[in-house]
Design a protein that fits this description.
This protein is an alpha/beta fold. The chain has nine helices and nine strands. Helices cover 39% and strands 17% of the residues.
């Protein structure tokens, strides 16, 4: 059940790389990306300015690469480059349905994207363009969750919309514990005390320090991105 709230003026949508793989173990499921793009389009047309950060778990993870013997910093840079692939795939899907976009990368690659410039990104958002933010923070040892939190604060968004494979934050892993209960809302301090896995600690601390609410919801439920952007009560709100 959902209920109407106040629509957000500007949001940062965090998408996992795994969500782009769909039912595959690896790579990109274009049907999934098309569905996500349609939902972003509806949210944008409803009046919400949208910036997007995408992970790279469908292609490579820096931590996993380092466990296989690759230098951790090198593995993280490989992951950052993989996010660019996902960002270009989403840009293509959005522009095919008439949504103006800009990809901005934290690592310079002028042939495929702009360099991230905070004021330019804000201007794009004000003009109604979806800004897709690639290459994480541009630095190793930071996750795309941290990149999402950082960009959310920099761009003065109203909330981070964390689209996941579950429909909110639970007292325990609902796949392992059938008695797990879902939170409608949970304070930052309680989430830390109970070790609830919302984001990594660096990202979480950044949101907490800047009073940035995090809306956690199921990306695979069609229309949820629009519902979250419109302020409907879905998933779990951490604030």
């Amino acid at each position: 059940m959902t209920s109407k709230g106040k629509p957000f003026k500007r949001v940062l949508l965090k998408l996992s790389g795994e969500s782009f793989a769909g039912s595959k173990d690896y790579g990109i499921d274009h049907a999934i990306i098309k569905d996500i793009a349609e939902d972003i389009k509806h949210a944008s047309e409803s009046g919400t300015e949208i910036a997007v950060v995408i992970g790279a778990g469908n292609i490579i993870r820096g931590v996993s690469a380092s466990e296989q013997g690759i230098d951790r910093a090198t593995g993280d840079y490989m992951g950052m480059l993989a996010t660019v692939i996902n960002c270009l795939a989403l840009q293509d899907a959005l522009e095919k349905i008439g949504v103006p976009t800009r990809v901005q990368s934290a690592i310079g690659m002028a042939e495929v994207s702009e360099l991230f410039v905070r004021r330019r990104a804000i201007r794009h958002l004000e003009k109604g363009r979806v800004v897709i933010l690639a290459a994480g923070t541009g630095n190793p040892f930071f996750t795309t969750d941290t990149a999402a939190a950082l960009r959310a604060v920099e761009l003065h968004v109203d909330a981070v919309l964390k689209a996941t494979n579950v429909d909110g934050v639970y007292t325990a892993d609902p796949k392992k514990d059938p008695t797990a209960k879902k939170y409608d809302t949970v304070p930052f301090a309680e989430a830390i005390d109970k070790g609830l896995k919302v984001m990594d600690l660096t990202a979480f601390a950044l949101c907490m320090e800047n009073n940035m609410p995090i809306v956690v919801f199921d990306v695979h439920q069609k229309g949820n991105i629009t519902r979250a952007a419109q302020g409907e009560k879905i998933g779990t709100v951490v604030k």
